[in-house]
Amino acid sequence: MTVEIENGAVTVSADMLAGPFGIEPEEVQPLMRAGAITGRVEEGAGEDEGRFRLTFRHGERRLQLICDEDGHVLQRSRTVLVGRTRVLP
Questions:
Q1: What is the CATH topology of the domain spanning 4-80?
Q2: pLDDT at 86 over 50
Q3: CA distance 39 to 62
């Protein structure tokens, strides 16, 4: 399982996100455009330099990937966020 990292830009396949969120791959991009799936990329510093932490959220589910600079996934965790604070419109 790899992530594409090029010049600081990170690309994750829809297949990699769909399974953990219990959706079909073709649903990923529209949900991201609508803001229903969010993502965050953090670059490691110090002893974590050369690593990236990618965090994706959809509903009450969170997927976190730790990757090296070549995009190889070193760690993967899935969490159900119970009692997550919601901002109401």
A1: SHC Adaptor Protein (3.30.505)
A2: yes
A3: 10
